[in-house]
Design brief:
With 370 residues, the protein is of the alpha/beta class. 32% of the residues lie in helices and 21% in strands. The structure holds phosphoenolpyruvate and manganese (II) ion.
Length: 370
């Protein structure tokens, strides 16, 4: 059972004390507190675990500090969307709002190769009005002899240049808990000119120690990729690991599923699951058409499969598109064949705008008929 307390309830207030005293004398019930510190208000949620089936919802709702009570199912306690759950599905980071109603494109290099390519990419993003970017520094590679990413050594120029071009947050994968500290240090040393979103890749979806480490810090949002060979339930539980440790700023990213049936695409595109994630959880949903489709193959209508897949995800209500661009894909050290060209950015964004508008129109049709 989830108890949402009145906003800004202080722990030393008589109302809070009276509420806690009542809850503590309930048999077989454990209380777990979860605090969400927003910019304007502090929200306290109390999770009652254990023997809660016999509790009377009205009794609990009448406690002085309690605003609302939600009966929660066992799955995804914190990030899940439970019955009668009207909790907000959004968070703000560095002035940018991420939620189930917002929309952003996270474009950039799959892997940072050199300063010039980073700068050219940020410049293109700024010219196209974009404020979030992707820049891989730590790369998990299948082959141990492949380029492993520049790691810590590129962070300073990436963050400096991001700030120069008005990028509010850079999404970058972390593969080890130490990377969180390295990113934090580099941001501090470059005057926090930008922010970071910590990406957990599909190969690490169930790296529970990494999940706990990213979950323990609450400064940086996390973008968790769906595991490419596990069930959706397992991937959503992985997201819940982040929240259970304290970090509820979690974005869930669909990136295609592994298997022969995916061919001729790199993975089987799973963007039909966008509305499913929104129904089961309160997380904003991202789609990654680059790692799903994995090629620049173009159909006879002149539209790349990658752009078709993007439109499919966006028209289904995706909140973010994570996509690889490169100024010179032939020189890219990772995933060049799937990268879009910087000069294609205006057309890519125009195409997305059509799909987003279509989604909003579809939503309006169905809202007006209920
Ligand atoms: C990536 O986005 O750079 C990446 C490696 O993705 P995934 O974990 O989905 O393979
Ligand atoms: Mn890649």
């Amino acid at each position: 059972m989830l108890l949402i307390l009145h906003p800004n309830t202080q722990e030393n207030s008589p109302n809070f004390q009276q509420t806690i005293d009542y809850l503590k004398q309930l048999n077989g019930v454990e209380i777990k507190e979860h605090i969400i510190q927003g910019q304007e208000q502090k929200l306290t949620e109390l999770y009652l675990l254990g023997n809660t089936a016999s509790l009377n919802k009205q009794d609990i709702e009448s406690l002085p500090a309690v605003e609302r009570v939600i009966r929660i199912s066992q799955e995804y306690r914190i990030l899940g969307r439970h019955q009668d759950d009207r909790r907000l599905s959004q968070f703000e980071y560095n002035g940018v709002c991420f939620g189930q109603d917002s929309f952003h494109v996270i474009a950039g290099l799959c892997a940072v190769d050199n300063r010039q390519h980073v700068e050219q990419t940020f410049q293109a993003l700024q010219q196209n009005g974009q404020v979030v970017a992707r820049m891989g520094a730590y790369k998990p590679r299948t082959n141990p002899y492949s380029f492993q990413g520049h790691g810590q050594s590129c962070l300073h120029y990436v963050f400096e240049l991001a700030g120069k071009y008005g990028i509010k947050a850079v999404t970058l994968e972390v593969t080890h808990e130490n990377h969180i500290e390295e990113i934090d240090k580099a941001l501090e040393e470059t005057g926090r000119a930008t922010g970071a979103i910590l990406q957990i890749g599909t190969r690490n979806t169930q790296n529970f120690e990494l999940l706990k480490a990213v979950g323990r810090q609450t400064e940086y949002p996390a973008l968790l990729k769906r595991g490419f060979g596990i069930t959706l339930n397992e991937s959503l539980n992985a997201a819940e690991y982040l929240a259970s440790e304290g970090n509820t700023k979690v974005i869930f990213c669909l990136r295609g599923m592994k298997g022969e049936f995916g061919a001729p695409h790199r993975n089987l595109v799973d963007f039909a699951h966008v509305p499913v994630i929104k129904r089961l959880t309160r997380m904003p949903v991202c789609i990654d058409p680059s790692h799903s489709v994995g090629t620049r193959d173009t159909s006879p209508d002149g539209i790349m499969d990658l752009c078709h897949a993007t439109a499919q995800g966006v028209i289904a209500g995706a909140n973010m598109v994570l996509v690889d661009f490169h100024p010179k894909p032939g020189e890219a050290l990772v995933d060049g064949p799937q990268a879009l060209l910087l000069e294609e950015m205006p057309r890519f964004l125009a195409d997305i705008r059509i799909a987003r508008d279509a989604y909003l129109q579809r939503k309006a049709i169905w809202e007006s008929s209920t």
